[in-house]
Amino acid sequence: MQEADCQSALQGLTEFTDSKMEEQMITQDKIEEALRKVMDPEIGMNVVDLGMIREIAVEGNEVEVKMVLTAPGCPLASYLVEQVRKAAEGVAGVEKAKVTLLDEPWSPAFIRR
Questions:
Q1: Phi and psi (nearest 5°) for 10?
Q2: Strand 62-67 relative to strand 96-101: parallel, antiparallel, unpaired?
Q3: What Rg, from alpha-carbon coordinates, does the chain have?
Q4: pTM greater than 0.85
Q5: How many CB atoms lie within 10 A of CB 94?
Q6: CB neighbours (10 Å) of residue 83?
Q7: Domains in the chain, start-ordered, CATH in brackets?
Q8: Which pLDDT tens digit goes with each residue over 44-86?
Q9: Handedness of CA 100, 101, 104, 109 (dihedral sign)
Q10: CA neighbor of 59 nearest in space, from 34, 93, 85
Q11: CB 58 within 8 A of CB 65
């Protein structure tokens, strides 16, 4: 009888651990969802739907977001980079986020509708 109780408890613990690991798993979708809260104040759209986010790379508990600006020499560049970094680091499990500005022009064709 005790062996069955132990097996049942072990199975419950395993299921709990698996569900917690899934919650902590960092995915590109989770990062993208967090970045949707970052708005370009000049245009009034979030950076994801504007197409400013070109790539999200997840390696372990670190994330790199590669992005472009809507205009060269954008006066809000440092603000946007910091907001994207903070949003990415706000995702459960992320210990460090790096934001890289790409040297490529943004295009209205990048906008997600």
A1: -65, -40
A2: parallel
A3: 19
A4: no
A5: 20
A6: 19
A7: 26-110 (3.30.300.130)
A8: 999 999 999 999 999 999 999 999 999 988 899 999 999 999 9
A9: positive
A10: 93
A11: no
